[in-house]
């Protein structure tokens, strides 16, 4: 084991058990970033699939309004408050 990994383990031992789950989530995220750096090139088909993965659930009548929906919701919230 490298010295840096040993230091990380020593730090982890000082963290309360109920807080370690947050560290685990961070490490999983970092691993995901590391893995994605290895596979930086995505095919066009993969990108389309990732972007439109929930497309089959979309209300097609509302898709054209989707671009401005968040802005309208924020504006409505401020007007009502």
Structure description:
This protein is mostly helical. Helices cover 67% and strands 0% of the residues. The chain has 4 helices and no strands. The longest helix is centred in the middle third of the chain and has 19 residues, at 20-38.
Concise account of the structure shown:
The protein has 81 residues and is mainly α.
Question: Can you lay out the helices and strands and say which pair or pack?
Answer:
Layout: H1 3-14, H2 20-38, H3 44-51, H4 66-80
The count of strands amounts to: 0
Beta-strand portion reads under 5%
Query: Order of SSEs, N→C?
Result: HHHH
- What low-confidence regions span 5 or more consecutive residues with pLDDT below 50? none
Radius of gyration using CA atoms only: 22 Å
Count of alpha/pi helices? 4
Give the overall silhouette. Answer: elongated
How confident is the prediction overall: mean pLDDT?
A: 77
The portion of residues assigned to helices is 55-70%
Q: How far apart are the termini?
A: 57 Å
Could you give a short account of the major beta sheet?
Answer: none
Multimeric state: single chain
- Determine the structural class based on helices, strands and strand pairing: mainly alpha
